[in-house]
Amino acid sequence: MSNKISVLGAGSWGSILASILVQNGHDVTLWARNTDQVNEINQQHTNQRYLADFHYPINLTATTDLTTALTSANIILFTVPTPAIRSVAAQVQPIIAQHNQKPLIVHASKGLEQNTHLRISQILQEVLGNHQSGIVALSGPSHAEEVAKKDITLITAASTDLTAAKTVQQLFMNDYFRVYTNSDLIGVELGAALKNVIALGSGTLAGLGYGDNAKAALITRGLAEISRLGVVMGANPLTFTGLSGVGDLIVTCTSVHSRNWRAGNQLGQGQKLADVIAKMGMVVEGVKTCQSAYELAQQQHIDMPITQAIYQVLYQDADVQTEVKQLMQREGKAEI
């Protein structure tokens, strides 16, 4: 069955998801703010800033007009960065309020909103309304660069409404892109957001010259921190052993494709955060998520020493080597 799908956000992930949907036989409109980018996708079928040398299906249509993008859409996929979720949803709301049938809302973004600390589905519920049980989060270990090459990729569609999750599962499944369902929306979204913080730390250790032992230690203890906070927030601890937990953590903490890892790597080499972000040219989700995670840990009285150390480096101008030494000199504790 072909669906009319609107994909909001034409970065590397949004555009490659749109491409998969077209290849799977769906009618897809890709929305972006940048006119030059939209023209490039429509005319050259490329998106060079985000995925150099990849060619999109000729029947993928892009537009800067949100009303056009949403016309007749029965599924809306948000892929814009977390800081833009609320403002884009606010533009979407009056348009879809006029639809006879409410579209299925899906998002593939990874982060927590600053100040409110809301997960993305909570932001969408708050702004769009009447989708309390139907929002689906699409998450897991998935670099757009590798999906573009049709490398084998497995991710999760999470929702408290398993019928909605199964609908999204069927939209994307093909011979190189496999989707599992999960009813733990809280755990999937928190795992997706918090792994970016740990990836910053992993890149920083690499930038400092530390090797695989340190990387494995950071990933393992980072997962422990994510799980501690997640359980307090209502997540199933088993979710963090799955694709959106340890799976996404591994790929984000070990790959040069990860912009969070790359940003951390530059920080470890002594570059300033503002300069790193400016040179990256794309949103580094872990930077703002780190502040939210740190504040949540303080509010919930959860011990998250790695997150705290990364926060001190990002927001308190702390010395990276000093923070590493302090982590290693903490009082000895049982692992579990």
UniProtKB/TrEMBL annotation:
Coiled-coil stretches: none
Record's catalysed reaction(s): sn-glycerol 3-phosphate + NAD(+) = dihydroxyacetone phosphate + NADH + H(+); sn-glycerol 3-phosphate + NADP(+) = dihydroxyacetone phosphate + NADPH + H(+)
Listed InterPro entries: 6-PGluconate_DH-like_C_sf, 6PGD_dom2, G3P_DH_NAD-dep, G3P_DH_NAD-dep_C, G3P_DH_NAD-dep_N, NAD(P)-bd_dom_sf
Pathway membership: Membrane lipid metabolism; glycerophospholipid metabolism
Assigned EC number: 1.1.1.94
Enzyme class: oxidoreductase
Residue ranges of every copy of the Glycerol-3-phosphate dehydrogenase NAD-dependent C-terminal domain listed in the record: 184-324
Positions contributing to sn-glycerol 3-phosphate binding: 110, 140, 142, 195, 248, 258-260
Active-site residues annotated for this sequence: 195 (proton acceptor)
Domain Glycerol-3-phosphate dehydrogenase NAD-dependent N-terminal: 4-164
Subcellular location: Cytoplasm
Binding of NADPH, residues: 12-13, 33, 50, 110, 144, 259, 283, 285
Alphabetized HAMAP family for the sequence: NAD_Glyc3P_dehydrog (MF_00394)
Name assigned to this protein: Glycerol-3-phosphate dehydrogenase [NAD(P)+]
Gene transcribed to yield this protein: gpsA
